[in-house]
Structures are given as structure tokens and as C-alpha cells.
């Protein structure tokens, strides 16, 4: 899966919760963050802000190939083993590296991240990705690893505007097979109707506006740690239920 | 005076920029509001509506695809790639994805 949507719609909060709930069902889960200003650690409940694949794991690529590649002897599985951060519920977290470093160093780590993600053994790992806000990375194919894109949308004009654009991914050649609409910060039925009307799609799950989530965020607490029995977690759990059987059996989700 | 508004996703950059632009315009300043976001929606916050916001974006995409020429200078840029917003603000979308890297 890959979570996408407008900035601030709740991608990282939902993705982190989703990854942990999926891991609780016994799946080996790799949480992927391709946001150079990473927000996923807050959703996962870990204190990590800059953990790129280190320099010595990356070398210059061959003539005509990618600019940077993983060093000889280091495969995608080794990267996970060595550099992915251990999170609650057994989730492993692979970060892209944030933009505070030198630009060349950031690029090295990003190329290595991409090679790792696309080269991983898909029968071993469930991937839960979190994209930066907006349309750019999604449109440029940074979430090609995902069979299912989850479009997080708030019932606001701007969030819906971005969501409509992201639905064009339906027509992209490499696009995900399914795009599921996740309504977030829902206050009432009218919010859901607004989203469904504007996107001309059924909403897959409605995650309610949660003051407990907002309160937790004041102190960098993840929903699963500050409000495990609340409605936010319950709805994300429902989303996991909905998607797991579909992808285990490799059938289309409606 | 030139003001740039930045911050995390969802923190209120667009809403703040729009309010600032219209407030300055109401005080009699000639204001140009520039949307530099790769996913522009300043038009919605300024109050020009969904459709006009979408039209400017489509125009910009055609520019990116090479379907139309870049504007050679400021006046023409605002003329061709801009629209009138309330309180006399002129809104323009500008772009150039120099480098299709993430973020
Ligand atoms: N259901 C909810 N109810 C209330 N607040 C929420 C809910 N979901 C997310 N939030 C809050 O919305 C804010 C943005 O969430 P988050 O950082 O997950 O968004 P994002 O889409 O990842 O943003 P960005 O594009 O900047 O990465 C946070 O303060 C978060 O706590
Ligand atoms: Mg985020």
C-alpha cells in the first residue's frame, strides 16, 4: 500500500497506525517513508527523525545506469536487516533521509532507498508507504511498489482538489491497480457525502475527527499509544481488515 | 515588499497567504499572489473558485508539456497565466519543475 493525499490530510498518522495494526496480525511489515520531511515516525510512535541509508552502503553506479547503487555485497534484504529501524509491534521502518544534509548525500540515500524498495522480495514483506503531500511524487512514480494506493482526503475544498488530481493515477501506465479513498477528519454524514460527490467514488473507510489524536500530537504521541481504544484506531483497524484478505488472496478490492 | 510563506503540509500556508494578500490589497496596495506549489490551490483560498483554479493549473500543465510558450516577462506572465481575485489581487501560477526529484 502507499498512502497519498494533500499535505496535512493525515497520511502519516494513518499509515503509521495501519502498519502497526497489520504487524499485529502477524505480517512482516516494512514501513516506507519517502518524505524528505518525514512524518511517519509520529504515526508509528518512534523517535527517529533522520536515518538515511548510510554513505558507506552506496557506491557510484555503472556507466549508463543509475547514478548511485547499493555497494557490492549489499542486497535489499541486508539493507532492511542493518538499517531499518525497529518500531513497536515489530514494524521495521526504512527512511529516505531528510533534507537537512548535503544534497549529494541525500541523493545517494534516496537512490539506495529506491533500489531497496523495488528490489525487495515481495512475498516476504508487506509494504506500507507514506508519501509527501501533494501530487508530485505520486505522479513521478515514487510509489510504483504499491498495488493499492490509499488516497487520504479531508472533507475540504483544497484536499478534494488535490484528491481529484491524484485520481488521474488511475490512467497512469504504472499506476496502482486499486485506489481506495480514505475519508479522514470526518465529522458527520454530510462530510462523507461531500467527498463521494466531489470524487464520484465510494469512500472505503471513514476515519472520524478525533480530539484524542490532536491532543496526542501535541506531545508527539502516536494514536495507538495515546488512544488505543478510540474511534480513530478502530476505523484504521477496519481498513486493515478490509484490505488484508483481498491482498492475501490477490483479488480485486471494490 | 515581497513575502514568502512556507511550512509543513496542512499548517495553513495557503490560507494565510490568501488572507494576507487580500488584507494588503484592501489597504490599497497593488498585490500579486503567486502560487508556486507543485499542487496549486491558492485560488480556492483567495476565493476565485474551484473551476478557475483548475483552469490556471491546466494552463500551467500545457506550459510544462511544451504546448504553449513561457512568458518572456513579468507583465505577460501575469496577463497570460494570471486571473483576477477579489479585492483587486492578481493571482498567478508559476512553475518550472527543473528537476523531477521527490518532495
Ligand atoms: N482523524 C483525525 N482527527 C484529528 N486530527 C487528525 C486526524 N488525522 C490526522 N490528524 C492530525 O492532522 C495533522 C496532519 O497529520 P499528518 O502529519 O499525518 O498529515 P500528512 O498528510 O502526513 O501531512 P504531510 O503532507 O505534511 O506529511 C496532525 O496534526 C494529525 O495529528
Ligand atoms: Mg506526512
C-alpha geometry of chain B? globular
Largest sheet of chain B: 3 strands, mixed
* Terminal Cα span of chain B: 28 Å
Biggest protein-protein contact in the assembly: A-B, 26 and 19 residues
Sheet-strand content of chain A, in percent, reads 15-25%
Q: What is the H/E order of chain B? A: HEHHHEE
Structural class of chain A: alpha/beta
**Gyration radius of chain B, rounded:** 14 Å
Estimate the mean pLDDT confidence of chain A.
91
Structural class of chain B: alpha+beta
Provide the gyration radius of chain A in Å.
Answer: 18 Å
Annotation, overall tally of beta strands of chain B = 3
Q: Indicate how many domains the architecture of chain A comprises.
A: 1
- In the residues of chain B, how many domains can be counted? 1
CATH domain topology of chain A: Rossmann fold
Name of the CATH superfamily of chain A: P-loop containing nucleotide triphosphate hydrolases
Regions with little confidence, pLDDT below 50 for 5+ residues of chain B: 97-103
General form of chain A: globular
Provide the fold topology.
The complex is a heterodimer of chains A (254) and B (103).
Chain A: E1 2-5, H1 11-24, E2 29-33, H2 40-44, E3 58-60, E4 68-70, H3 76-83, E5 85-86, E6 92-95, H4 103-119, E7 126-130, H5 136-139, E8 148-153, H6 157-166, E9 178-186, H7 189-199, E10 205-208, H8 211-218, H9 223-226, H10 231-248
Parallel strand pairs in A: 1-7, 1-8, 2-6, 2-7, 8-9, 9-10
Antiparallel strand pairs in A: 3-4, 5-6
Chain B: H1 13-26, E1 32-35, H2 42-46, H3 50-64, H4 74-80, E2 82-84, E3 90-93
Parallel strand pairs in B: 1-3
Antiparallel strand pairs in B: 2-3
The complex binds adenosine-5'-triphosphate and magnesium ion.
Adenosine-5'-triphosphate sits between chains A (5, 7-13, 35, 39, 132-133, 184-185, 207, 209-210, 213-214, 217, 232) and B (8-10).
